[in-house]
Design a protein that fits this description.
Elements lengths: L5 H6 L5 E3 L8 H9 L4 E4 L5 H14 L4 E6 L5 H10 L4 E5 L4 H9 L3 E6 L2 H10 L3 E5 L5 E2 L7 H11 L4 E4 L5 H9 L4 E4 L1 H4 L8 H9 L5 E4 L6 E4 L2 H11 L4 H8 L3 H7 L23 H21 L5
Parallel strand pairs: 1-9, 2-3, 3-4, 4-5, 5-6, 6-8, 8-9
Antiparallel strand pairs: 7-11, 10-11
């Protein structure tokens, strides 16, 4: 069967649904589960030493014969080692983020790797396109993890970037249902990338306490923090409150770095310290109320997408 959707063609997947490469959540178990279900699973290299990433790639290869990718934050100090492992293990798809894609895109593409870059504004979308990436993830302000300083929402960002570039656009930020997926497509997206909903999947490597805090969260329980350092959306807790107070008092980049320290995200998301850890999650966490298998999450989103699309088409807007 010919795949008409450009992202499905690009990755050779059944559904235009990509699981985000989230630190401390996106190991081989989650990535393979999503890929086996017809989406594109992504291993998040941002929380892995090179040797750990190597193990996850090899485990993922054993767990699925479907396409999967690796997300590489380019600002990480050991990025060269990670790139070398991805090439050595013949990973076919790489999503880059948090850095300049110019340095690495040509190197990856020379090895036959499909490259996608994550951006939060038109300026960097155009730079990524110029660098030769195959597609762009346009991530709105609602998203968890690293975020844009401009605070542009997904609904505004997607049509702006879609108009500016000629390569496929994947919408991200605030998408966790079929209805929000349909809205992204209406704005011009060719696919969606979903993080928070998969962060609480059964196969996610996030700590159970973190997953439970997500499903108990309500509207307004996240905030964008550390814009002077690296913008990140956090669930409110003692650490997030301390950061907010420091920022209100004019803390500079050095002070924020000291407060963040090392392994703060691991402490919260992987080890389950809900008071002192960094708990990265999107605004859509307020909609997430149940821990489910990744396959069920993906299928429910797709079924709701089709239902909402058909219901919208059946409405009579004649005046």
């Amino acid at each position: 069967m010919e795949l008409k959707n450009p992202i499905c063609r690009l990755f050779n997947i059944k559904y235009p649904i990509i699981q985000a490469g989230m630190v401390w959540c996106s190991g081989w178990k989650l990535a393979s589960a999503v890929s086996n279900s017809g989406g594109l699973g992504i291993i998040g290299a941002g929380s892995m030493y090179p040797a750990i990433l190597l193990e996850h790639i090899r485990q993922c290869k054993q767990a699925t014969d479907k396409p999967f990718g690796v997300n590489i934050p380019l600002l990480y100090p050991n990025v060269q080692e990670i790139i070398d492992i991805v090439i050595q293990e013949e990973v076919k798809i790489v999503f880059t983020s948090a850095g300049n894609p110019v340095t690495w895109t040509a190197i990856l593409k020379e090895k036959g790797i499909t490259v996608v870059h994550v951006v939060a504004n038109t300026k960097f979308a155009l730079k990524a396109q110029e660098a030769g990436v195959d597609a762009i993830v346009a991530e709105g302000f609602e998203a968890g993890g690293h975020n844009g300083r401009e605070e542009t929402t997904t609904m505004c960002l997607i049509p702006i970037i879609k108009e500016a570039v000629h390569i496929p656009v994947i919408a991200a930020g605030g998408i966790a249902s079929g209805k929000s997926m349909l809205a992204a497509f209406a704005l011009g997206a060719d696919a969606v990338q979903i993080g928070s909903a998969f962060a609480i999947a059964e196969e996610s490597s996030a700590h159970p306490a973190f997953k439970n805090k997500i499903i108990l969260s309500a509207e307004g329980d996240t905030r964008l923090a550390m814009k002077k350092l690296v913008p990140v959306r956090l669930l409110k807790n003692e650490f997030a409150d301390a950061i907010a107070q420091a920022e209100a008092e004019g803390a500079d980049q050095t002070q924020l770095k000291e407060m963040l320290g090392k392994a703060r995200a691991k402490l919260g998301m992987f080890e389950g310290d809900l008071a002192n850890g960094e708990l990265e999650i999107g605004q859509v966490s307020a909609m997430l109320k149940e821990i489910k298998p990744a396959k069920r999450i993906l299928e429910e989103i797709w079924e709701e997408f089709l239902k909402a699309k058909n219901e919208l088409a059946a409405q009579n807007f004649d005046i």
